[in-house]
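Anyone up for a design puzzle?
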């Protein structure tokens, strides 16, 4: 780092960066906590890091101070560009700032491999961003992501627990998922009404057929769309529910929350076969 940086509070004031609810913004200003999140994503040596919604740059500073090869920060809020420009000047050649919507970016063209995502995600787009990345999970070595704690619990939940549902199945089918850190509302500016949590996701080595992922999305949408019903009823929207359940060797009187990820995969494989696609 070649130049001294102002504090994050000074940066927010200087650039008029009051958090906007419409953008789901809650800034993490504690340098120690930002450093802990960066360390969860380790090892970062030689890695290209993608950050989403850096805002005034608290986590960005920790990532730039890490051994990461390069950081690419995607920011929708035009007001933050000046603050991020100061960081870019302080770490010459190590930070690329992209103004745009993270839901529309193509990580494969934006930064080279090996890639890791490290981000305090805007609350209002965290889940759709994760679903999109699960479709491209083979592109990333890992994803270290902060969500509202309730969303984080839904990602790591086990079968037959309160938070187990579609998000848990999709995330755990593609990744090893671990909740690593919980943060109270007071850690943020402005404080949200709920706790937050960091989840570390490491994609499994195998890269399944995209058609199987789509089939799994379809099956889980039907199963959990009516989670109080037995599977033979909730899966009727797929057509031939009884046949699919029989082929997967799953009792149709069970409910969605009792199925393991592997059992949902079997249902997805049979749904794909029914649709005329190839399946493992």
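Challenge accepted. My sequence:
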């Amino acid at each position: 780092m070649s130049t001294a940086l102002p504090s994050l509070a000074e940066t927010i004031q200087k650039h008029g960066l009051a958090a906007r609810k419409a953008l789901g913004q809650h800034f993490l200003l504690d340098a120690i906590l930002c450093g802990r999140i960066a360390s969860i994503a380790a090892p970062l040596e030689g890695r290209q890091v993608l950050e989403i919604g850096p805002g005034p740059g608290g986590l960005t500073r920790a990532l730039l101070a890490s051994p990461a090869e390069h950081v690419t920060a995607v920011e929708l809020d035009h007001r933050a560009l000046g603050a991020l420009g100061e960081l870019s000047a302080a770490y010459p050649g190590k930070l690329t700032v992209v103004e745009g919507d993270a839901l529309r970016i193509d990580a494969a063209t934006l930064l080279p491999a090996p890639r890791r995502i490290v981000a305090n995600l805007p609350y209002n787009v965290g889940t759709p961003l994760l679903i999109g990345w699960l479709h491209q999970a083979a592109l990333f070595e890992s994803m270290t992501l902060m969500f509202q704690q309730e969303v984080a619990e839904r990602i790591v939940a086990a079968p037959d627990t309160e938070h187990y549902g579609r998000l848990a199945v999709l995330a755990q089918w593609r990744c090893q998922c671990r909740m690593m850190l919980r943060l109270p509302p007071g850690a943020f500016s402005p404080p949200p009404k709920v706790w937050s949590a960091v989840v570390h996701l490491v994609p499994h080595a195998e890269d399944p057929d995209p058609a199987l992922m789509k089939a799994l999305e379809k099956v889980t949408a039907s199963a959990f769309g009516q989670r109080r019903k037995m599977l033979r009823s909730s899966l009727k929207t797929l057509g031939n529910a009884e046949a699919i359940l029989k082929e997967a060797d799953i009792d149709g009187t069970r409910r969605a929350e009792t199925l393991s990820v592997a059992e949902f995969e079997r249902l997805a494989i049979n749904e794909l076969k029914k649709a005329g696609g190839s399946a493992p």
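A detail worth pointing out: Residues 4 and 90 are 7 Å apart (CA to CA).
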